[in-house]
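Thread: Newbie trying to understand structure tokens

Hi all, I'm a second-year student working on a class project, and my supervisor (Dr. K.) asked me to get a predicted structure for one chain before our next meeting. I've only ever worked with sequences, so writing a 3D structure as a token string is new to me. If someone could post the tokens and maybe explain what I'm looking at, I'd be very grateful. Here's the chain:
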Amino acid sequence: MSKPVIATENLRHAFGEGELRTEILHGLNLQVEAGEVTLLVGPSGSGKSTLLTLIGALRSVEEGSLKVLGEELSGSSEQQRVAIRRRIGFIFQSHNLVSSLTVLQNVQLLLQLKEPNPSLRIERASALLEAVGLSHRLNHYPDELSGGQRQRVAIARALAPEPELVLADEPTASLDSQSGQDVVELLGDLCRRRGSAVLLVTHDLRLLKDADRIWRIEDGLVNRWQPDAASLAGNH
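---
Reply by user tm_fold:
Sure, no problem. This is what the structure looks like when written as tokens:
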């Protein structure tokens, strides 16, 4: 049986020092498996984004165990964290596309370290943009696209280096209902076919039905969650 892509054990994290110290994560234990779309849901301030930055090796682990792609991040050096980040695709609520570059050039950005051949970079970027339904927009600029199209470009860019893990922080927050659902379905389909894992932080309960596994975080604690019919219908 393959090892989880993400595994935490008694993971804790706090901000501030002394009397101002506030613990955000209170001993989390969760797993994310390869080939699955896992949602992380919970109210604002519950620690979702903090957990995502720890998993993405953007913060140092303070206490507990956090294994990502088989590597222990507790006690890791910055060099080790950089190496892990290169194996992860990141998608954010703000697509963070470079406005002065075309759609095709944006997707090629993350391929420069992995693929030195310019022709092969163009070929791979073009194939990904076709997969996300934007083959007719290769030479357009981000400002010429709709919000949903820009997020599709962000997905193609994140998948370009063939990451083993994709972390998405509220990627549908600025999209309408249909565009948001299309983006998550597309992300899940592309990653399942490549055997990657997706961990998606969201407030959008309409996405629950697209998940293989759901974790709910609240007050710094996390539990597996089986939503009821009302939640699956998108009712709060």
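A couple of things are worth pointing out once you decode it. The first strand starts at residue 6 and ends at 15. The two ends are 37 Å apart (CA to CA). Feel free to ask follow-ups in this thread.
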